[in-house]
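Q: What residues go here?
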């Protein structure tokens, strides 16, 4: 198969032929239809989230079943499926209680095993994790169902329990932030988006946000409190850095809820936060990572019933050979929307 291989941190990915994967017991092999290029992939590429090298990156994908391992009962050749980036075992106490994102035996394509910057990817624990790709959803958009959109959905509904009419502050207008914005609007929230790139704020406003705050030129937390009449009910931090985490907490009103979605790594793995604001505001702070596979039906039902168009998330359909340039672009300001690999042959 053709694949992009990470052989050294911050090195260009090596495009070449690699051995085809075989299905593990209980797993399948997918022909990759699309794979998103995510900021979490950039964390791997930089070494901030180190992995065993060499490694094929890519954790946000959808595909067609081309091989089925022993013990798989729910999937057959030709099925088109989506998968969460956390592949849970399905048998441990955490999985049995529905908390698949904390499964101690989880597999993570692109992190603990080869990922989907390739024509083929092996997916373990298929019966536990895979969901049928809806016929009305194109593969490029379905790839985002593996990470950005699902993470946003779980943050809003599984952690913060957002309610109609509440104010939602979104810190970071990348793929997760835009997903939170669109899903939040579909759930009846009023949305304020914070970023330092005006182009991204303008994009979020076109997607329905009530307001945009440019943190490069103003005190973002104060601006959110002013816009919302005292503070947001829910804040979503979607970058994983100290400045936005602190600002998200300070943007909340009394009894507000903040969800840390952005992955704190490197210099941001440990950060000081204003515990006085947590205490005096009686705030709730949640961490979140991915989404349990059993929650796909609720998300897909909302998308179908509301006819929410998530296609504005996808701004670039790129070739496998473009992946290195897309990863390095995360070092600086990136344009609105996300890049998805849809051409694995060039």
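A:
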């Amino acid at each position: 198969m053709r694949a992009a291989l990470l052989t050294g941190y911050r090195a260009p990915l090596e495009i070449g032929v690699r051995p085809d994967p075989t299905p593990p017991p209980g797993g399948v092999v997918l022909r990759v239809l699309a794979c998103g290029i995510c900021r979490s992939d950039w964390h791997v590429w930089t070494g901030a989230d180190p992995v065993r090298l060499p490694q094929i990156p890519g954790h946000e994908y959808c595909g067609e079943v081309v091989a089925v391992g022993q013990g798989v009962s729910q999937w057959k050749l030709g099925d088109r499926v989506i998968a969460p980036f956390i592949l849970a075992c399905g048998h441990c106490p955490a999985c049995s209680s529905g908390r698949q994102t904390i499964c101690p035996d989880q597999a993570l394509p692109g992190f603990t095993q080869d990922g989907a910057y390739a024509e083929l990817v092996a997916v373990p624990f298929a019966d536990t994790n895979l969901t049928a790709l809806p016929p009305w959803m194109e593969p490029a958009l379905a790839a985002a169902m593996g990470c950005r959109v699902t993470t946003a959905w779980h943050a809003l509904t599984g952690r913060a329990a957002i309610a109609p009419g509440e104010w939602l502050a979104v810190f970071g207008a990348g793929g997760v932030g835009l997903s939170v914005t669109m899903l939040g609007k579909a759930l009846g929230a009023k949305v304020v988006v914070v970023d330092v790139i005006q182009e991204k704020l303008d994009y979020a406003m076109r997607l329905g946000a009530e307001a945009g705050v440019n943190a490069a030129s103003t005190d973002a937390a104060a601006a959110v409190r002013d816009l919302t009449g005292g503070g947001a009910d829910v804040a979503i931090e979607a970058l994983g850095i100290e400045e936005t985490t602190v600002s998200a907490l300070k943007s909340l009103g009394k009894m507000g809820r903040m969800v840390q979605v952005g992955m704190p790594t490197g210099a941001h793995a440990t950060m000081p936060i204003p515990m006085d604001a947590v205490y005096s505001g009686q705030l709730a702070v949640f961490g979140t990572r991915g989404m349990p596979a059993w929650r796909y039906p609720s998300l897909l039902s909302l998308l179908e019933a509301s006819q929410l168009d998530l296609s504005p998330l996808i701004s670039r359909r790129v070739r496998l050979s473009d992946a290195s340039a897309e990863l390095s672009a995360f070092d600086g300001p990136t344009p609105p929307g996300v890049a998805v690999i849809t051409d694995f042959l060039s």
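A: Context that may help when evaluating the design: The chain has two domains: 2-147+291-343, 149-287. The chain has a mean pLDDT of 97.
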